[in-house]
């Protein structure tokens, strides 16, 4: 299986990018993993939030195949402990799906079309974080999930 993290907009903090790259390398020890970036929309001052979500949503959906398992990282999603998240990840892998796509949306969230396409929604916290920080939190939790699944000492209980 491949896991893809699909995000809107680049990370412009070099320190964050460096740490994300470190976790990306660690994750690839366990599974094929990639991060794909959809460019930020231009000239968004003249369009509504709903229109921006719809335009971003259309760009996101172009990158998702019909047979991909789609998980939205969304504040309204289910919250998991790290152990529960690793178990959920194992369930997804056990289905035999070829690719699981986790998506971090733009500043206003997701369009209705993206919500309708989603197979699952996951919340990393009820707090609000910048999209750049969420990327780091997610890749760390993904790495942690694989260390849990492999009974490695990274996670302490």
TrEMBL record:
GO terms for molecular function: rRNA (pseudouridine-N3-)-methyltransferase activity. One of its GO terms (cellular component) is cytoplasm. Keywords: Cytoplasm, Methyltransferase, rRNA processing, S-adenosyl-L-methionine, Transferase. It comes from the Bacteria. InterPro entries: Alpha/beta_knot_MTases, RlmH-like, tRNA_m1G_MTases_N. It catalyses: pseudouridine(1915) in 23S rRNA + S-adenosyl-L-methionine = N(3)-methylpseudouridine(1915) in 23S rRNA + S-adenosyl-L-homocysteine + H(+). It is an enzyme of class 2 (transferase). Belongs to the RNA methyltransferase RlmH family. Homodimer. This is Ribosomal RNA large subunit methyltransferase H. It comes from Capnocytophaga granulosa. The lineage of its organism: Bacteria, Pseudomonadati, Bacteroidota, Flavobacteriia, Flavobacteriales.
């Amino acid at each position: 299986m491949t896991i893809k993290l699909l995000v809107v907009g680049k990370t412009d903090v070099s320190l964050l990018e460096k740490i994300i790259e470190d976790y990306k390398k660690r994750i690839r020890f366990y599974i094929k993993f990639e991060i794909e970036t959809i460019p930020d929309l231009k000239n968004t001052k003249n369009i509504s939030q709903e229109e921006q979500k719809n335009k971003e949503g259309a760009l996101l959906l172009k990158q998702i195949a019909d047979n991909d398992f789609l998980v939205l990282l969304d504040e309204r999603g289910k919250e998991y402990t790290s152990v529960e998240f690793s178990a959920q990840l194992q369930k997804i892998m056990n289905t035999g799906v070829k690719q699981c796509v986790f998506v971090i949306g733009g500043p206003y969230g997701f369009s209705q079309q993206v919500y309708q396409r989603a197979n699952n929604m996951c919340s990393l916290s009820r707090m609000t974080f910048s999209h750049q920080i969420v990327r780091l939190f997610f890749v760390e939790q993904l790495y942690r999930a694989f260390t849990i699944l492999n009974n490695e000492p990274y996670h302490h209980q």
